[in-house]
Write the structure tokens for this entry.
Amino acid sequence: MASPFQPPASNSKSYSLTLKGNQHYEKQQYNEAIQEYTKSMEHATTADFLALLYSNRSSCYLLAHQLMLALMDAEKVIQLAPDWPKVKVELEQYDDAIQLYRRALEMDNRDMGFHIQQLEVGRDLAVQKPSFANPVQRQVFDFAKQMRNIIYLVADIESKQCVIVDACWDIDGICQALEDRGYTIVACVVTHSHIDHVGHDTFPIKVNGLASLLKRYPHIKAYIHAEDIPSVRQTNPSIPINRLVASCTEITTQLHLGKRTHLRFIHTPGHTPGSQSILVNDCRLIAGDTLLCGGLCGRTDLAGGDRRQLENTLRHTLGQLDDRIVVYPGHNYGVDWSTIAIEREKGCLGEDLVGFGMSPTSNDLEERPTSRKSKRASVSSMISTFSIDKKRPLSVQHPTPLPMNSHTLR
């Protein structure tokens, strides 16, 4: 199917160089194509044509497994031509667009020696009814699906050492995921103290979480910011205090897995006093409920919430991070990853902070996983500007009208 993107080349020179690049592309000579597209950029004079060149070069980088360069070029396309993601929407290739980048992201993580596994409640966890015929626990699982929490396994590929982030709702399922992947759990991390991230064992209706995990693995400890430890202890009094380690101190700023993977704790208060984000190898941020992606941030109207603190966190702490860092949120509210650049552009970070988005209600979420509207939003907010057909680059028109027997540049 031909691409609807056919902006005219800036001049004959850029047309000729792009033609050469596209010919190399179609022959799968990606390094040669990259060179021609780069030369053509020097002669480009319009944003649309420059965006086309970045898009084609991004595709070449992706296919040549130079994934961070592919990501950087794709972000350039979004900056130059923010309406271009609509092409995939028009072609209704939502799932292809999202899955393509997810695969690239996963390959990039593995190249850096670590693996981040998202376990989504309602998709990967809490999908089976408990074996016991307890109607209350079945209702807990049903409620868990509405919350759309994301639990994270962060593993060093070489050593197989693994950390679990925000273990809750379905500890059996989490442990099974560890076993299936052959990981050895060495610690767990809590982004904040709300019960949908740590569980509770004090109320009549118990939610499996941190307490259950620590009982199952008596050799590990949980890393929690000191300001959230009291509330965790209040809802989970069965956890011995010596199993909880205060993070973000002088001696607990980082946690190392094997030789290549390190996790850095960043205090990001506002949603709760002790909210923390985890920066993996300085390039992947597990943000909990502080930054929920898609232009949303954590609520401040719950116990312990502080709007001014959250504004400072978003404006300064997270706002100063590198734009290329990939962000993983604590819930899937239509978007399960983003980048610092995308969230900054949406007005949720840095000096361009314009306000706070509130988490959607459960009713709002019911239609999101299957609706075309939600996938349209996901594609638009994610990096989905790689070429539509990976066998062909995006097309461009000659800078001047061509005779009827001339061919459109591909």
